[in-house]
Amino acid sequence: xxxxxxxxxxxxxxxxxxxxxxxxxxxxxxxxxxxxxxxxxxxxxxxxxxxxxxxxxxxxxxxxxxxxxxxxxxxxxxxxxxxxxxxxxxxxxxxxxxxxxxxxxxxxxxxxxxxxxxxxxxxxxxxxxxxxxxxxxxxxxxxxxxxxxxxxxxxxxxxxxxxxxxxxxxxxxxxxxxxxxxxxxxxxxxxxxxxxxxxxxxxxxxxxxxxxxxxxxxxxxxxxxxxxxxxxxxxxxxxxxxxxxxxxxxxxxxxxxxxxxxxxxxxxxxxxxxxxx
Length: 277
Ligand code: TA6
Known about the structure:
By secondary structure, this protein is mainly β. It contains two helices and 22 strands.
């Protein structure tokens, strides 16, 4: 079942429910802000705003056509997450699978920020796992450079209960110290953590006391892991002081050295599949 809904202030979103999963997707940014099976996969800030032009705090923001400040001419994490997408396809092939596609094409506003013609499509497969495929097509006559990420906020029991496996031995940029390091063993959290991993190819596992979530990607060899901890959390918009305890971001990306150059008419798809065991 798919229902188009509006919040009191007119903010439009889609509610999707099938026999095994339920989700809510804002048309702005094609932003999935809830997805649950037996477990709630995603964290959403209690103080997030749902206002046109403002990024939702939590769920799965799309960082596009730039990750972070990889393109200093653009806002942090690009502009797609605050632009209105169009719902172009809905299909319910079985009672436990729902397929949706949302599209953003270049417009006057996007061209004023980033002067290229493009088509950006997010295909969502909603079942007992969540699969996302973000396809960029260069519709221009000149090549462009793309960095991007699914900036996924995972709901956790407590930041000190979790560890992340699958990045052992991988090189990463410690974004706080601006230094290159190699991951030693599992990732655990005892302070602010902001790291961009490269050469990522295995499934990443987020292990909590009561659940394990897996993250498998295609079209990506980089991944960002972030938790703001106490001080940065207190400075972040739409985040309560203790919010850092209840989420961790594991962001499937094409970021930094994993950038893509798309020639005219060329496409690239960044895909990720989430499961919760
Ligand atoms: O992906 C990690 C990061 O770049 C952090 O440094 C922090 O800035 C976070 O993204 C949130 O960024 P946002 O623009 O969504 O507030």
